[in-house]
Structures are given as structure tokens and as C-alpha cells.
Specification:
- Chain B: Keywords: Transcription, Transcription regulation.
- Chain B: InterPro entries: IBH1-like, IBH1_N.
- The complex is a heterodimer.
- Chain A is an all-alpha fold.
- Chain A is built from 15 helices and no strands.
- Chain A is elongated.
- Chain B has one domain (about 1-105, about 140-170).
- Chain B contains 7 helices and no strands.
- Chain B has helices spanning about 5-30, 40-55, 65-75, 80-85, 85-105, 110-120, 130-170.
- In chain B, α2 packs antiparallel against α3 and α3 packs antiparallel against α4.
- The chains are: A mainly alpha, B mainly alpha.
- At the A-B interface, α5, α6, α7, α9 and α10 of A face α1, α2, α6 and α7 of B.
């Protein structure tokens, strides 16, 4: 149903004679339809790709405005693209909770997921003209998403950013191959109405697009950035967030200095394993850390408990200090007690 | 679970690597400075070791990690220790920073420019980056790792609090 609508509208919209008003109305219609589609079905990647591509065939402003529902539901789509769980409603809740300030949540998923969407858009921009090209581009984007999913799953041992960078690299490679196949030598970008078409302004525009893309990623990483529009405001938020994090590091190091008279972390060598267990066992990461800490020793597997109580176990680092031994024993012997602060 | 499992795993692995390195750097620092220390000096030492550890966790390809190591290397009196962590990258970074200082500062012309300059001053090594696109990419990466650092430090501080209370109770008994 939607495919028919899409193809029909594309023909009428490719003529530059259409007024801006009409275009805006059409985009609003599409937005509503999109939202309906999204709410109805959760595993809709094929149609969404088409819609994404089709939106990519119009100018960037409209695309940005129509892309905002995707941004909101990005985390809902992402699992659908890559793994396939998580209904959109949860994503909506998450977005709402994310806009609350001073609440830190790992948002690393969004980068990759949005990058998936962004790469689709880039490909769509490149393959603007032909409807045939569109279908070929469709296959490409699907291939790309699979490639990204594969690279993601195969690179668990590496860092987050390396993950996204590598996946974007592989996607760039596939896009290059595809463009070769289609024998397009240049990037065809249709100039908007009333805009200069010389090389410099095009290059400038491409550069600005890249920057705005990056700003979008940052928007999702930095909480509370969704409300602010404009580069200056977003930069303000980002600066604020970085300053906030740096101040937190400062404060936490002061706290640790106060708590540790001997300049050693009370959690050391042997407990590194427990930390690993703690971090891998964190399923309910939404809870505050303070709540989790009392549960931390209780969540241990049996073998780790034994290793914790036995301080003579050799580890990859050095032998624990005397203070740590007493501390660890006291910590695990009294793990059944409730902690109150 | 809202997040992608794979993402969470990589984030947790980042945190694990960070804490291992942090313990290492703290030990190194502990052996190289003279005791006793007051609170401020202890805080600086902990902060330094933490920054070096997070930069080492992200070792290599980012400007901010190399700049952080270079900057921290200048602060510590014991330079060999910093050099031990990331040799080549640190020297590379140092040379770039020197050339920039020679070129002088720019006055901010517009609001965006002012803020970009401020962001450059916040992100370690940002002054060296001219391309705004690259600066934002670096900021992104830096924020993720800064978050990891804060998360781990918060956990360690919480556990410290717990063990501190317990030892106090034991002593008071």
C-alpha cells in the first residue's frame, strides 16, 4: 500500500515547479503516515528503508524535519535493524526519560543506529534520479545493514567508537562498490531552488551536511539536547555536558582521596574479577549504582566468592595489601547485612 | 532491556579495561611519589592516574587520548612513568601543540566561533584540530570514554564508602 503511494508521489515531486507549500504539506502527510506505520508494526525495516530513501530524494530541510520522528524512535528501530527486539514504545519512554537532565544513561547504541539511518540517507542522496536506481539502492542499504550488523557482532572485543568507525568504513566501501557498478562517476546532487550550483558552494554544502550529521549524533549522546535547536545552543549543551563530566571526575577523585588514606583503591586485584562479573551481570542498569552495590557481592557466582575470601590467590597484577585483605574479608563476611546510607 | 546487548557488552569491556589500567597507573604513581600526602595531593594523584588510564584505554587513534597523556605527563614530576604508558604518541602530540602556540590565538567573531573555541579548550587536544567536523567526532568519542570513567569511579567510590564503614565498625567494636 505504501509503496504505491511512494512511487506515485515521487513522480509528481520530481518536478521543480512544485511550490514550497505543497511540498511541505506533502511532507507533513508523510510524517503522519510514517508515524502510523511505525506504531503499527515493529519489524518494518523494508518499508522504512524505502521511505527513508524516498525522503532522501528531496531537499535536506524537509528530510531533516521528517527525520525527527526517526530520531525519536531511533533506538526502537535499531534493534530491529540489527537484532530484532524492542518495540517502539519502549524507545519512546526511553527518549522521554532521556530528556530529563542530570540523569546519565549510556546512549552508545544510538550512534550506531543513527549511523545506519544516515548512511541510508547518504546513499539515497547519491542515487536520487532514477527509480530503478532507487530499487538497486534499496538492496545496497539492506546489504549495508547486514554488513554493519555482522561487523558489530564480530567486533565485540573492541571499543565502541572503533565499532562505529569500522562499520561506517565497511559501509563506505560497499557504497563505493555499488556506485562503481552503476557507473556513476560523479555525485549527483540536485541544487535547490534559487541556490548556486558552482563547485565551491556544493562542496561547502556537503561539508555543512557532514557537520550537521555529527551534531545529530551528539544530540543523542548528550542528554537534553533534543530541545535545543541551532548550532550555538547545541554547542552550549555539549560544552555544559563535558564540563559537568569533568567536574564529576574531579569530585569523585576527591572523594576517593578522602576515603583512601593510603592512595590505594580499596577495590583491587582480586576484585577486578568481581568487577568484571559485576559489569557483565548488570542487566538492570537503570537502577542507581548505590542500590546495586549491596547486591554486588551477592550476585557473585560461587567460584568468585571463594576467590574473594581467599586473598592468597595470585592474579595478573600484584599481591593484595594487608589493608585490602581485612577489608575484603569484612566486606564478604558481612554481605548478608543490609547496607544503609 | 532498552539497549542493544552488544553495545552494552563493549561498554562494559571498556570499563573493565579502564579499571585494570587505573589500578596499574595508581600503583606506578604510588611507587614514584614521596609519602605522606595531604588530601589535595592525593586527589591530584588519583585524578592523574585516572586520566592516564582512560587515555590508555582509548590508546592510539584519537587526538584527545594522546593529548591527555601528554598533558598529564607534564604535570607529574616523574616523567618516565608517563612515557612508559604511551611512548611515541605522546611525543607526536607534544610537537603539534608547540606549533599551534606559535601561531597565536584567534579572536572569536561569532557566537558559534566563541563556543567552538571553548569546546576546543575543554576537549584535550582540541586546540590542534582545525576541522570542525573532526572536532565534533573527537568530542563524541571523548564524551563516551569520559562517561565510562565517571561510571567506574562512582562505583569504586561507592564500594570504598561501604568498606570504609565496615572497617570503622570493626574498629569500633
Amino acid at each position: 500500500m505504501l509503496e504505491g503511494l511512494v512511487s506515485q508521489e515521487s513522480l509528481s515531486l520530481n518536478s521543480m515547479d512544485m511550490s514550497v507549500l505543497e511540498r511541505l504539506k506533502w511532507v507533513q502527510q508523510q510524517q503522519q503516515q510514517l508515524q502510523q506505520v511505525v506504531y503499527q508494526s515493529s519489524n518494518n525495516s523494508h518499508e522504512l528503508l524505502q521511505i527513508l530513501q524516498f525522503h532522501g530524494s528531496n531537499n535536506d530541510d524537509l528530510l531533516q524535519s521528517s527525520f525527527s520522528p526517526f530520531q525519536m524512535l531511533g533506538s526502537g528501530f535499531g534493534p530491529n535493524y540489527n537484532i530484532g527486539f524492542g518495540p517502539p514504545h519502549e524507545a519512546m519512554d526511553e527518549c522521554i526519560s532521556r530528556t530529563s537532565s542530570c540523569h546519565m544513561e549510556p546512549v552508545d547504541t544510538i550512534e550506531v543506529l543513527l549511523k545506519t539511518g544516515e548512511e541510508n540517507r547518504a546513499i539515497a542522496l547519491k542515487n536520487k534520479r532514477n527509480p530503478e536506481v532507487k530499487t538497486r539502492g534499496e538492496e545496497k542499504t539492506e546489504k549495508k545493514i547486514k554488513v554493519e550488523a555482522e561487523t558489530e557482532s564480530s567486533m565485540k572485543g573492541k571499543s565502541n567508537m572503533r565499532n562505529t568507525e569500522a562499520s561506517s568504513d565497511t559501509s563506505k566501501e560497499t557504497s563505493k562498490k555499488a556506485s562503481e557498478i552503476q557507473k556513476l562517476d560523479y555525485i549527483h546532487v540536485r541544487a535547490r531552488r534559487g541556490q548556486a550550483t558552482d563547485r565551491h558552494s556544493l562542496a561547502e554544502r556537503a561539508r555543512r551536511e557532514k557537520i550537521s550529521k555529527k551534531m545529530k549524533y551528539l544530540q543523542d549522546i548528550v542528554p537534553g539536547c533534543n530541545k535545543v535547536t541551532g548550532k550555538a545552543g547545541m554547542l552550549d549543551e555539549i560544552i555544559n555536558y563535558v564540563q559537568c563530566l569533568q567536574r564529576q571526575v574531579e569530585f569523585l577523585s576527591m572523594k576517593l582521596a578522602v576515603l583512601n588514606p593510603e592512595l590505594e583503591l580499596a577495590v583491587e586485584d582480586v576484585s577486578v574479577k568481581q568487577f568484571q562479573a559485576y559489569f557483565t551481570n548488570v542487566v538492570a542498569s537503570k537502577q542507581s549504582i548505590m542500590v546495586d552495590v549491596p547486591l554486588f557481592p551477592l550476585d557473585q557466582q560461587g567460584s568468585l566468592d571463594l576467590s574473594a575470601i581467599n586473598p592468597n590467590q595470585t592474579t595478573s597484577i600484584e599481591a593484595p595489601s594487608a589493608s585490602w585483605e581485612t577489608q575484603s574479608q569484612s566486606l564478604y563476611n558481612t554481605s548478608s547485612l543490609g547496607f544503609q546510607y | 532491556m532498552f539497549y542493544d546487548e552488544a553495545m552494552m557488552n563493549t561498554y562494559n569491556m571498556v570499563k573493565q579495561r579502564f579499571i585494570k589500567k587505573w589500578i596499574n597507573t595508581l600503583h606506578m604513581l604510588d611507587s614514584s611519589i614521596e609519602h605522606p600526602l595531604n588530601v589535595t595531593e592525593r586527589k591530584n594523584a588519583i585524578r592523574l592516574s585516572s586520566d592516564l588510564a582512560i587515555a590508555a584505554t582509548r590508546s592510539g587513534s584519537t587526538v584527545w587520548s594522546r593529548a591527555l597523556i601528554s598533558r598529564s605527563g607534564n604535570k607529574t614530576t616523574n616523567k618516565p612513568m608517563a612515557r612508559r604508558i604511551l611512548k611515541k604518541a605522546r611525543n607526536r602530540m607534544k610537537n603539534r601543540c608547540n606549533t599551534l602556540r606559535r601561531n597565536g590565538n584567534f579572536t572569536a567573531k561569532s557566537g558559534t566561533r566563541k563556543r567552538t573555541d571553548l569546546l576546543k579548550s575543554l576537549v584535550p587536544g582540541g586546540e590542534v584540530i582545525d576541522d570542525k567536523d573532526y572536532l565534533i567526532r573527537e568530542t563524541l568519542d571523548y564524551i563516551v570514554y569520559l562517561r565510562a570513567q565517571v561510571d567506574v569511579m562512582r562505583t569504586v567510590a561507592a564500594i570504598d564508602l561501604v568498606t570504609g564503614n565496615l572497617t570503622n565498625d570493626r574498629r569500633n567494636k
